[in-house]
Amino acid sequence: MLPDADDLPDLLLDLAVPHEDINEVVALHRKVTADPGIQRLLAECADEVTGATAAGTEAHDPSGLGERAAAAPAALDGYFLVYVFLAALPHARAYHHARGVPADVSRRTLADLGRGMTLHRRRYGSGGLSAFQASWLVHHFRGELYQLGRLQFERARLGERTARAATASAATATGMATGTGQAGAVAPGQPCLNLHIPDYRGPLTPAACDRSLALAREFFPRHFPEEDHAVATCHSWLLDPQLRRYLRADSNIVRFQDRFRPGHQDTEPADTTAVQFVFGAPDLPVQDLPRRTSVERAVGDHLRAGGHWYLGHGWFPWGG
Fold it and tell me: Which pTM value belongs to this model?
């Protein structure tokens, strides 16, 4: 399941693993491959990651992955989950190949492993991969999610509340496609594309988003022709309409919000989500949050004034 130690550095670079982590990951190779107990645990965890891909079905990250990984020896210094995804890599690449996914799209998608490790070090100050980041990467390694330009697109199923919001707007949603190709209602469980905004990809400019959407409109009919995606959705604190109070109307975030029609409204605060994505960790003291950028000022000032941030939910017609 694992490459030879001599081949490992180049493979890690392909996965965008930070240079400062490469020597440590390679140094653990002998320990991982020489211990039958670690090998069994590694195989079980890799099976958790690749099971849905191998079966050709769609599923969310099984809850057992984090629990199994917790049994890894402490001597692996938090890198055990990195090895899990290295073991799962041949399955992910085979799935991409079977679907005809271009090599550059496959590489950029699976390179989210390195981004996850960067976020881990940013938050914890040490190398490795957390169970939280691993649960996100399962979508990539199962062939559910693809990096196409600035945005990531996840093959998903329409939730009940978003379907209800889209159906209520169907009369005025010109060009919205359903399974019959006609404008009308959409149903929970229909295929949709869920948009994600990854870190370390530069500004969220309208031009970059336009290019991503254009790439996605070519990519999914070509590689997943059996799926009729009715709408695109996004579930993110970046869609919280309160951001409009603090940001200019022509800011990248507000213009990104303008792409979406409103879905359901959350009532549970997501303050730690906003703090984590802007400042790197969810539990930073609010009074100490820096004010270097307009987004930092918006998030911190709003919280210091006693406000809360919420996940926003939006959609727009995808078919035509």
Answer: 0.90
